[in-house]
Amino acid sequence: MDSVVYLDFKSKELENLKNGQKTMIIRGAMGRKLPYGRVNKNDVLFFIENKGDGLIKGKAVVDSVFNSDKLTKEQSIEIVEENQDKLLLNKELGKRFGGKRYLVLITIKDFKEIEPFKIDRSEYGNMDDWLQVENIERVRIK
After folding, report:
1. Per-residue pLDDT at 33
2. Quick check: helix, strand or coil at residue 89?
3. Cα torsion 87, 57, 125, 108: sign
4. Is the pTM of this model over 0.85?
5. How far is 65 from 72, CA to CA, in rounded Å?
6. I need a labelling partner for 69 at 20 to 30 A (CA). Which of 28, 32, 120, 129 fits?
7. Residue 81: CB partners within 8 Å, gap ≥ 6?
């Protein structure tokens, strides 16, 4: 399964993936929303920054996935802090994910920069920061 994953431009998430310092992606919510329970080992993630250029610039393979049970605020913050060395979240993102009831931690491997390309988002909602696209070729604009 292929997914398009939006990364925070201000906190340099893509840059940190490129230089190998960041090896984990996090998503969190008060309920079980995408990608909770829907990402598996060996899925391929395609990365795009939330800066408006709409270009996919990298890809990686999912090495492992942790879907939390329902967490207290304290447990959630603790998990984020314990994994900060792999997540490299800035203060803003740390606050955004710490305290969520459900967390998804995705360890990646084999990050590669790729020739940038755009995708057709018309089948997806405006606010999604994780798009399950099945096969990237289905949404790639040629």
Report:
1. 92
2. coil
3. negative
4. yes
5. 20
6. 129
7. 94, 98
